[in-house]
Amino acid sequence: MRNRVAIKNHHEEIHLITRRCIAALILMIILITLLVIRLSSLQLANHDLYTTLSKKNWLDLVPLEPTRGLIYDRNGVLLAENVPIFSLDVEPYKIDNIPKTLAAIAKVVSLSDDDIVQFQKQLKEHRRFDKVTLKVRLSEAEVARFSEVAYRFPGVLVQAHLLRHYPYNGTLSHVLGYIARINMDELTDIDPSNYSATNNIGKLGIEKYYEDELHGTVGYEQAENDASGEPVRVLNRIKPIPGKNLYLTIDIKLQTAIEQALSGHRGAVVVIQPATGQILALVSEPTYDPNLFVAGINEKDFQALQQAENRPLYNRALRGLYPPASTIKPYIALTGLDYGVTDPNFTIFDPGYYMLANSTHKFHDWRRHGHGVVNVTKAIIGSCDTYFFDLGHKIGIQRIDDMLARFGFGQLTGIDVDEELAGVVPSPAWKQRVKKTSWFPGDTLNTSIGQGFSQITPLQLVAAVSTIANRGQRFTPHLVYFEQEPGKKAVMQESVETAPVTLQNENNWNIVINAMQGVITSPGGTGVLHFGKIPPYTVAGKTGSAQMYSIKHYNSNIEHEDQSVLPEQMRDNSLFVAFAPVDKPQIAIAVVVENETIAAAIARQVLDYYLLGLPTSPIVANSGGSASVAH
């Protein structure tokens, strides 16, 4: 008889079902607990956050762009304005397929390759929720066409903006600078909330240095949206605060007159008011049109500017580093007089060269046969190198450096723009650090006539000659005259006086200034030929000719000093500094012209314009000329 086998184990089934029910119950308790915790988090801990988010479904906070402050010249002539334009802006987070959208937009609004390139560049540099401009300056026809089909492009909108415009084009580009689109580096340095409605920021010049004053403060608009996210009404509005208006010390008529005189040449002219430090004109030629950068310059135009042989983007007035040449001699003379190394009656005989003791090397004067018997006055008037070789050797490089530093050479002047360079006042320590070699007596001689390692900017030159005009009183050069908050009275920016240059004998100022007058008026003065006939006003000046390349090194067979045999880029630079009238200076000027001998002639035109009201005209340079006429 077979044993019966049980098909089911009821007892085991009951235990299995019981275990499963308990596990399901525990899981349900855990899930319910998590749900309660989550609900508590949403309803209690994060109540404010989600209430705000829910409001944002029907409320939107729209930033309002502040009006950028205007810039005027000292007489109220508008130099930088804001003009209304329409732009096509994109909100990337609202668009699923940007390339497809751009292709569709291009059928409605004309988009150039540059527009696309600039847009893609800005897209990478901005946050996902930022508006990015696709095209600037839509025509009225384009605005009308896009408005008809705008419903097909969610996240793309036409907006009215104020665009910066410079009515004088390139005339003030090296003073004003320009504004352009904010880049990635700048995004990390600015307050993003204050620039939430702004795409542009100051890049150079006044626009950059006074960005905080010009930009203003962003405003906000609280708008109620419909179900599609379109605004239906404004619930609240905080008005933006416009930026300050700036009045510069620049005289645009003088600036324009100087540019006309310097037109066609490479160089810089800086004009200053000695009694205040106010800069009346700051010209660097050639120049460029800053309006090209405001809406986004295309790659081709930018490369053309960067690679241009004349370097129009280069601010020669603030960044041009030039040997001061003979314009340094008045300061060397003051050093010798102040330290008692020389006096007005001390003379030397100049045979046309100078030799150090125990040396056979001849340091040649610019005049081959020399100046004969000269004292300090005749040395300045005739720009006698031999006299200053001897004087510089006796003074020593340390005392020369100390005096030049007191006049501001080798230092930033403190002008209210950022592009300035400090230049070089060479010293033994500087040469060891930079050149890794020792200082030699010949280096001192070269420094004494403004050659060798010395480098100055035109701005430093005019600040230093202003100090001579003021007989030691110094002011920080500055470009802003008044600041004006919206609806308020303009506030004048006070001139800042810096440490004066004091001499042991105040009469030494008169000795040097009288000699500088002789540069213009004496028969042997180096300024007579190029400055022209004696003007009806008193003027003190000094010429300079900075050697760029030795003719004998260029061609050892050439004995004469005719610069015309050299390629243009190798010819000497000409320099000229002056102030007038001598007794009560109204104007001081520094001129540097690259590879031409016309600096004094340009200065004469500027002084005649400012003091006599005579017009300026472009100067036609000679083909090179003799190097001896510009020292």
Your description of this structure?
This protein is α+β, with helices and mostly antiparallel strands and 631 residues long. Helices cover 35% and strands 19% of the residues. The chain contains 24 helices and 23 strands. The strands form seven sheets. Strands 2, 3, 4, 5, 10, 18 and 19 form a seven-stranded mixed β-sheet that branches. It has a five-stranded antiparallel β-sheet with strand order 12-11-23-22-21, with helices on both faces. Strand 18 (480-484) and strand 19 (491-492) form a beta hairpin. It is elongated. The chain starts with 9 loop residues before the first helix and ends in a 19-residue tail after the last helix. Residues 556-560 and 623-630 have low confidence and may be disordered.
Compact description:
Helices cover 35% and strands 19% of the residues.
Q: Helix/strand-derived class? A: alpha+beta
Shape designation: elongated
End-to-end distance: 140 Å
Q: What is the number of E strands?
A: 23
**Low-pLDDT stretches:** 556-560, 623-630
| Total DSSP helices | 24
The gyration radius over C-alpha positions equals 36 Å
Biggest pleated-sheet summary: 7 strands, mixed
> Strand fraction band?
15-25%
Give the mean pLDDT. Answer: 88
Helix content: 25-40%
